[in-house]
Specification:
The protein is built from five helices and eight strands; from the N terminus they run ββαααβββαβαββ. The chain is of the alpha+beta class and about 180 residues long. An eight-stranded mixed β-sheet has the order 1-2-3-4-5-6-8-7, sandwiched between helices. β4 and β5 form a beta hairpin. α1 crosses α3.
Length: about 180
């Protein structure tokens, strides 16, 4: 990677198999508009995978909240075009937040179907795990729809274990013990 100046923390160039290059970076307040703009492009199935229920719209309040993580307890990344925030199309969002008064964090990842299946989710998940480790947490978990096989397989390949939640039919809780290597 010659010719690239050193990137700030949590920034990384990610090349898709088709040669397109994205920049993985921490979410910024300016990303709210592009995320709001991209939301209608997501299919209802995708939205259900990410938000677990069909969300007809992402409100400006929700987008604002997503783009202003609390640095003490939340971490959110986007994979976006390598353009200034606010102009860059956002292709994926990954976030994790520490559950208050615990040493656990919950994750959620949304990758647009335009770029799904190309290793981006795995890279984002690795970064969420790394962040959780820097916070000295014990567990990272996420609730995944039981028919979202790509996400279940991804989590399992990164050593997450299935934990069936009886009170939420159709959901599988995927848990990573951060104290195991």
């Amino acid at each position: 990677m010659t010719g690239h100046k050193r990137l700030p923390p949590w920034h990384e160039h990610f090349r898709l198999p088709n040669g397109r290059e994205l920049l993985i970076r921490p979410i910024r307040p300016e990303d709210a508009e592009p995320i709001l703009g991209a939301f209608p492009l997501l299919g209802p199935e995708e939205v259900r995978h990410r938000f677990l229920y069909t969300l007809k719209e992402l409100t400006p309040e929700m987008a604002y909240r997503l783009c202003h993580p609390d640095p003490r307890s939340e971490f959110a990344l986007v994979a976006a075009e390598n353009l200034p925030p606010g102009e860059a199309l956002v292709g994926a969002v990954a976030r994790t937040s520490i559950v208050p008064r615990t040493r656990e964090a919950e994750f959620a990842i949304l990758v647009s179907h335009f770029i799904a299946g190309q290793g981006l989710g795995r890279q984002l998940m690795r970064k969420l795990v790394k962040w959780a480790r820097t916070k000295k947490l014990d567990r990272l978990y996420g609730d995944v729809l039981d028919h979202n096989h790509p996400m279940l397989q991804l989590a399992q390949s990164l050593n997450f274990k299935r934990q069936r939640e009886d009170d939420t039919p159709g959901l599988v809780r995927m848990v990573l013990d951060l104290n195991e290597s």
